[in-house]
Amino acid sequence: MGRTRVQPTNVRFVCGLSGYFHKDLAAVKSSPHFDPLAVDGAPVTPGFTSVHLPFLRAVAGPWLLRRDVSVFRANAIAVDALGGSGGCGRRLHTAVRYGLTQALLSATALVWRCTAAEVIAREWAVEMSARPVDILASCHCNDWLQLDRMIMKRVALLPHASFVHVRDIGPEGDYLLEYVRSVSRRIQERGASDYHPRLHFDVYGRLGEAFADAEIPSFMELVARAAHPYGPVLIESPIVASSREAQIQRPRQLKQPACPSHRRPDRRRRVVQHS
């Protein structure tokens, strides 16, 4: 028996609030000081009218009404190919595509009376995880109370933090290394003996500016040592390149440390740029 086509009968777009903003990273990087809640800076990236881009109201109602929501994967592919409003041919903003696919995934799960995870597993032919998937919790570098709450709740991945400027990681990366050591000590002091989270730090591509690419693996070895006994350490966006092609190539060219891991990279030929 063939699959029955299921189409929505109505689409409602509602405004929702969350704790996350899409930031104009170029504007944040060029600002002398970073205030995570400030919105009065001048935007730099085309498409931003302020430093923060709120979740946009979708305009794809008629398109959604034509979709068969008994399947999800085909709809997700179609959303990625969907042109912007007015038929301009540009892809919709990432946040809009995320919202549309989340709604479509929820609809497919309702059709089959199952969870969204089961839909993904079936359509991509993968096995369901036998254990809960780790969730990342986030706090700012100076928010030790929030870090303590994460530790008390036994968060699996923490603390994310935000190292937005090169100066945030410090000369030779000293500030970042000391923060990693402090987080490790805090977990040992406040956490249970059987609590062993993974540490995750977002450096916004600043390692690629503070160090030559060949020096980054050696520095990341130092980060791993600072995090002991917790690991492996996850470093988000060590490099942010100027183009998609460069973003693919530069991380691929990173190799094993050229110098012993207990030594710092040779900084005599390179000065850290504070921007």
Overview of the molecule:
With 275 residues, the protein is mainly alpha-helical. It has 2 domains: 1-12 and 52-126, Enolase-like, N-terminal domain (Enolase-like, domain 1), CATH 3.30.390.10; 144-255, Enolase-like C-terminal domain (TIM Barrel, Alpha-Beta Barrel). The protein has 11 helices and 5 strands; from the N terminus they run βαβαααααβααβααβα. It has helices spanning 25-30, 61-65, 73-81, 94-112, 116-123, 144-152, 166-169, 174-190, 207-210, 216-227, 244-252, and strands at residues 22-23, 52-53, 157-160, 198-202, 234-236. Strands 3-4-5 form a 3-stranded parallel sheet, covered by helices on one side. A two-stranded antiparallel sheet has the order 1-2. The longest helix is centred in the middle third of the chain and has 19 residues, at 94-112. It starts with 21 loop residues before the first strand and ends in a 23-residue tail after the last helix. The model is unreliable at 54-58 and 267-275 (pLDDT under 50).
Helix and strand topology:
Elements: E1 22-23, H1 25-30, E2 52-53, H2 61-65, H3 73-81, H4 94-112, H5 116-123, H6 144-152, E3 157-160, H7 166-169, H8 174-190, E4 198-202, H9 207-210, H10 216-227, E5 234-236, H11 244-252
Parallel strand pairs: 3-4, 4-5
Antiparallel strand pairs: 1-2
